[in-house]
Each structure stands twice: as C-alpha cells, then as structure tokens.
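Pilot study result, target chain (110 residues):
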Amino acid sequence: MTGMTNVTKLASEPSGQEFLVFTLGDEEYGIDILKVQEIRGYDQVTRIANTPAFIKGVTNLRGVIVPIVDLRIKFSQVDVDYNDNTVVIVLISDSGWSASWLTASQTCFH
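Predicted structure:
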C-alpha cells in the first residue's frame, strides 16, 4: 500500500466488533471489517454507458468483474480528485458478490 492513505490498527471496540472507518468530507463512516475483502489503490476502470456519474465503471479483480462506486460523488462532495490517497475498498456481500467504494480519505480500523 505504498503511496496510499495511512491505515492505522487501533484497539477493537468493547463489543469485540471491528470497523474500517473512513472519512468523506467532514463525516466519518464505518464498515464491518468482516465485509471488507481488501483495500487497494485506484486503477483505471472500464466505463459503462448510461450509468450515473457516481458509478465510475468496472474493474477486473483477479477474474471477477467488480463495479466501482465513488461515494464522494454519490454524497455530492464537490472536490473529487484521483491521487495517491484515493483508495478502493472492496466489499463482499452476504450473498458472495463484490462491490467497491472509492474514497480519498484517512482510513483506519476501530
């Protein structure tokens, strides 16, 4: 994860459940760490016609086609820049399919 955002391991919550916490604008969001498949740098994606602006496209993740959703655009954040701090959080659903969220923020574990 060279050149990407700092990822800091913090103590788990008293409940024993851990979260990946990331910041969008002035707000923090958390995802159950068990839903996170991986955190990776942003690569170019294949655009899909007639999709909303927040759907950046799809990428091939070791043979699995994964949609890339930019939460900054979805939540109407004005300044959207793709740089070394832009990370893709790859999630896995209960049904087994994968999706990715794009953030450009400080990311840590709680």
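One observation from the pilot: The longest strand covers residues 55-61. A full batch analysis is planned for the follow-on phase.
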